[in-house]
Write a structure and sequence with these properties.
Elements lengths: L2 H19 L2 H14 L3 H26 L3 H8 L3 H32 L3 H17 L3 H27 L3 H9 L6 H12 L3 H11 L8 H31 L9 H39 L6 H5 L1 H19 L5 H7 L1 H15 L3 H4 L6 H25 L6
Helix pairs in contact: 1-7, 1-10, 1-11, 1-12, 2-9, 2-11, 2-12, 3-8, 3-9, 3-10, 3-11, 3-16, 3-18, 4-5, 4-16, 5-6, 5-12, 5-14, 5-15, 5-16, 6-12, 6-14, 7-11, 7-12, 10-12, 11-12, 12-14, 16-18
Length: 396
């Protein structure tokens, strides 16, 4: 592989992971916590970025060194564990993909005035089209990059029109008035939780970027992915901060839309439509690709026809939203399981990193092991809290 092709692949994998993270929930989380914490939310973003990098480096490096997808690593560590991990990934990915389809429908509604259901159908077809062309992997990479740059560019424009208090944001990022641990964990889960952190790692593995000789490239791509997602988070935070600083209350039902419209009027509202559509449809692509990547190695038939499984995954997500209008109540419970996937997967990777039968003579950095273990403990606790809170909603 020549340097140009490798660079394009690494960038594509980074954007696939980043745009998988930047979905409708990402937009809502960021604007909601900005309204709650104001400039001090900058500190939350900073801490979450550090944690995100620690989690992602651990996972991507072990996938590359073992030259196996996460589910096969888990099965080798403990027979059956990989099947359990895959079940969680697919169930959580499906639940969140229905939400992503809903977000895409909202985006087309803002832009063209059509019903969210019709917009969801159109968006589902666009996502399916990515996987029906020849060399779908390359098209997926380019699709994620193009829409990723579009989202960032439009958000930068809205940020400048919002005129945020930059000096205060810098000061509070270093010395916050309050430290909200729940917000930190929520952001970590929204960036590297569930299927998201595996999107780029599995993409690199599929493209042949593996082994010790590839660690430098894997590290670069992993950090770049967090960087791209974080850039979007920071610009959106500053845009929201500019609006909140003016005393404008955000609509709790759609805080991100309030930010864009308050900052740039009607044009800003249309920009919001573009951003949420791009965020949603790229997340649909990333969720479908990554979820299916967790079952590909279980069957030669699935491996051979994996593109059609991805198409089916997107079609099911779209049809559920169109027929129901919103995810059914059971998906609340299934979606909350996503909070448990990161600590389970990361814990598996950290243990696997010290098994010669999996990584050979590779020596995993001590600081990565310690850092990863701390993330596992914190995210396990918060994941169970989320799960417990979600169960009563099934009976309301």
């Amino acid at each position: 592989m020549d340097k140009k092709s490798r660079r394009r692949l690494l960038l594509g994998a980074a954007f696939l992971m980043a745009t998988s993270a930047i979905g409708p929930g990402f937009l809502t989380q960021t604007t909601h916590f900005t309204e709650q914490l104001a400039a001090s939310f900058g500190f939350v973003i900073l801490v979450s970025i550090i944690i995100d990098i620690g989690a992602q480096l651990n996972i991507w490096r072990i996938i590359a060194i073992s030259e196996k997808p996460a589910q096969d690593i888990a099965n080798k560590l403990l027979p059956g564990l990989g099947f359990a991990l895959s079940a969680l990934i697919v169930a959580g990915g499906l639940a969140f993909n229905i939400g992503n389809i809903a977000g895409a429908g909202l985006g087309t509604n803002v832009l063209f005035g059509i019903s969210p259901e019709m917009g969801a159908l159109f968006s589902g077809l666009v996502a399916i089209g990515v996987f029906l062309v020849r060399e779908a992997g390359k098209v997926m990479d380019r699709f994620a990059q193009m829409l990723g740059f579009l989202m960032i560019g439009l958000t930068v424009y809205v940020m400048f029109t919002a005129t945020p208090p930059l000096g205060e944001a810098v000061v509070k990022t270093i010395a916050p008035d309050t430290i909200d641990f729940l917000a930190i964990v929520t952001l970590v889960g929204g960036t590297v939780g569930g299927y998201i952190t595996f999107a780029g790692g599995h993409r690199l593995l599929e493209a042949g970027v593996k082994g010790k000789e590839s660690l430098e490239y894997v590290n670069r791509s992993a950090v770049s992915a967090i960087g791209f997602a974080s850039i979007m988070r920071v610009f959106l935070f500053l845009a929201a901060l500019g609006v909140v600083a003016q005393g404008i209350q955000l609509d709790p039902g759609n805080p991100a839309a309030t930010v864009f419209q308050s900052a740039a009027g009607t044009i800003g509202y249309k920009i919001f439509g573009v951003v949420i559509w791009a965020a949603a449809v790229t997340s649909v692509v990333g969720a479908a690709y990554t979820s299916v990547s967790f079952i590909r190695s279980f069957s030669k038939s699935i491996e051979k026809h994996h593109k059609w499984y991805i198409v089916g995954f997107i079609a099911i997500s779209t049809l559920v939203f169109v027929s129901v209008g919103r995810p059914v109540s059971i998906l609340i419970l299934v979606g909350s399981l996503n909070g448990l996937i990161l600590p389970l997967a990361l814990g598996v990777m950290i243990i696997a990193a010290h098994k010669k039968s999996i990584v050979g003579d590779y020596k995993h950095p001590v600081w990565m092991t310690i850092f990863g273990a701390l993330i596992v403990i914190v995210m396990t606790y918060m994941g169970f809290i989320t799960l417990i809170e979600g169960i009563p909603q099934l009976f309301e």
